[in-house]
Amino acid sequence: MQKQYRERVSLKNPAHFCALGFGSGLIPVMPGTFGSLAAIPLLLLTLSLPVWLYIAITAVIAVLGIYVCGKTATDMQVHDHGSIVWDEVAGMFCTFILVPLTPIHLLAGFVLFRIFDILKPWPIFIIDKRLHGGTGIMLDDLLAGFMACISLHAILFIWPF
């Protein structure tokens, strides 16, 4: 992250701490990938939760993300800076809705989410270009997560592993 932007955020600020993926977004290479990896320990904490609670937590993460990502982007004075990775955390949670969290499923979901997040196929790229603020930062990754989820369910239906 360029020094001028780094000076505008602090990991002591709870909104910045979350938006920066607990610091994972500060890794200078592939911050989105490291932000996605930061979601895995949180996902593992949900292993024994009922589905309704997992979905509720996913919704809270998404709504919270609109605020923390928007605030951090405003404080940095840059829309959707690469170090803002809470949207990747939320996208990963969307990816695993109704998917058993086995090691192979985690790997497959992670790869699918990263593909959708990086390539931004239609309609993700439209949202990425047209929406701004916290909603815009979050929505393209939430959609990437839902697309990864649908793809993962289709793969597991055709080829259960």
Backbone CA Rg: 15 Å
User: What is the residue-averaged pLDDT?
Assistant: 95
Q: Which overall shape is indicated by the principal axes computed on the Cα atoms?
A: globular
Order of helices and strands: HHHHHHHH
What composes the largest sheet?
none
Count of all domains:
1
Architecture overview:
With 161 residues, the protein is mainly α. It has one domain (3-158). 69% of the residues lie in helices and 0% in strands. The chain has eight helices and no strands. The chain has helices at 3-6, 14-19, 31-45, 51-76, 86-95, 103-119, 124-130, 133-158. α3 packs across α5 and α5 crosses α6 (103-119). The mean pLDDT is 95. Its EC number is 3.1.3.27. Keywords: Cell inner membrane, Cell membrane, Hydrolase, Lipid degradation, Lipid metabolism, Magnesium, Membrane, Metal-binding, Phospholipid degradation, Phospholipid metabolism, Transmembrane, Transmembrane helix. It is found in: Cell inner membrane.
Key features of this structure:
69% helix, 8 helices, 161 residues, mainly alpha
Topology (elements, then pairings):
Elements: H1 3-6, H2 14-19, H3 31-45, H4 51-76, H5 86-95, H6 103-119, H7 124-130, H8 133-158
Helix pairs in contact: 3-5, 4-5, 4-8, 5-6, 5-8, 6-8, 7-8
